[in-house]
Specification:
44% helix, globular, single chain
Length: 410
């Protein structure tokens, strides 16, 4: 047999992405502290130009907040850069424990457990639960995040996929299984690509009826919803009905890391059995310190959350006024449907090059084919000037792209 042609296989895989308009490029930007959402874009040729970031997940601008930066500097000066190991071997510091205490308090849970990202928290927890609960059946929403899908896929246990937000379909699946089997329902509070809300109360009702545990991803809600930023469950008074809550420190809190919040026994079991926790170097102390400061601050800053929601409403109203195909489910996420990967990438490139507006195209596999979109994430630091510029750019560009599509189809 001839030797395998590794390079030709790699070339074919990359060419497929280019042909389908799905090849992803990194945009080299340097955010400007104190001036966010403005940043500097370094083009491939080395030249620079100012841009406004409209697709970041630092939803509240906490990544530049003085209280966060001060806490990180203090920790860095006190203990140095890295943690020095895994949580089990020299990598647990006072900063990690303080952050876990802040998070447990935020959600009204006995304990919280830190991971290096919310992706790892989801994957590690969901893949480990069947080891702790033999025979566990996991019921997963069809549009759950990739990290949840991967955790469920890898756990070796039984799984059922229910249609997105379809409570009746979930009921059918639960009713069809052995009543004595342990069960867990995994879903999200806000689905990040459409910005729609999960039916948390109705799913909790089903969980109680069928004796199932509940696992809720609040990644796109923590910090932004509820009186203290506890998420949609806090806003709606449902936090006590969720058994395991997943959150991130890399979005509204502006730093890095992920976590679960649950009972002390369950956190202890995950800590003891999950390879994704046991064998990973812990967050740097400065990161943990900054995240704790951010969580602590946002517990007492409802005005920042209100400003965030106000900016999202304003942007949606302005874009709807242009007649754009906006997906609006009432959350802070603002997706504009394009429906074609090539057009979506083209619009993103033109916004960046011609208007100094940075928004990444969202294509398959992040969203289903034919639902490609531009996903805008307004924040309290996107003021009237930035919104005016975006609306004017989208008005001009959408009209231009519509003409181009008409010419191509003629």
């Amino acid at each position: 047999m001839p030797p395998l042609s590794y390079e030709s296989s790699i070339d074919a895989a990359l060419s497929k992405l280019h042909e389908e308009g799905r090849y992803r490029t990194f945009i080299d930007i340097a955010r400007e502290r104190g001036n966010f959402p403005h940043a500097t874009w370094t083009r491939p040729d080395g030249s620079e130009r100012p841009v406004t970031v409209w697709c970041g997940n630092d939803y509240l601008g906490m990544g530049q907040h003085p209280v966060v930066l001060r806490a990180m500097h203090e920790a860095l000066d006190a203990v140095g850069a890295g943690s020095g190991g895994t949580r089990n071997i020299s990598g647990t510091t006072v900063y990690h424990k303080r952050l876990e205490a802040e998070l447990a308090d935020l959600h009204g849970k006995e304990q919280a457990l830190l991971f290096t990202s919310a992706y790892i928290a989801n994957d590690a927890t969901l893949s480990t639960l069947p080891k702790i609960l033999p025979g566990l059946i996991i019921y997963s929403d069809a549009l759950n995040h990739a990290s949840m899908i991967e955790g469920v896929r890898r756990n070796g246990g039984a799984k059922r996929i229910f249609r997105h937000n379809d409570v009746e379909h979930l009921r059918e699946l639960l009713a069809a299984d052995d009543p004595a089997a342990p069960k867990l329902i995994a879903f999200e509070s806000i689905y990040s690509m459409d910005g729609d809300f999960g039916p948390i109360g109705a799913i909790c009702d089903l969980a109680e009826e069928f004796g199932a545990l509940t696992y809720l991803d609040e990644v796109h809600a923590v910090g932004m919803y509820g009186p203290r930023g506890g998420g949609v469950t806090e806003r709606d008074g449902l936090a006590s009905r969720i058994d395991i809550l997943n959150g991130t420190l890399a979005k509204a809190y502006g730093v890095m890391g992920g976590y679960i919040a649950a009972s002390a026994k369950l956190c202890d079991a995950i800590r003891s059995y999950a390879p994704g926790f046991i064998f990973t170097t812990s967050l740097t102390p400065s990161t943990a310190a900054g995240a704790a400061a951010s969580v602590r601050h946002l517990k007492g800053d409802p005005d920042l959350r209100a400003a965030h929601q106000s900016q999202a409403r304003t942007l949606k109203m302005r874009l709807k006024g242009l007649g754009l195909p906006l997906i609006d489910h009432g959350s802070h996420i603002v997706p504009v449907h394009v429906g074609n990967p090539v057009h979506c990438k083209l619009m993103s490139d033109m916004l960046l090059e011609d208007f100094g507006i940075y928004v990444q195209p969202i294509n398959f596999p992040t969203v289903p084919r034919g639902t490609e979109r531009l996903r805008f994430t307004p924040s309290p630091v996107h003021g009237p000037r930035e919104i005016d510029a975006l609306v004017a750019a989208m008005d001009a560009l959408w009209s231009q792209c519509a003409l181009n599509r008409a010419e191509m189809s003629a």
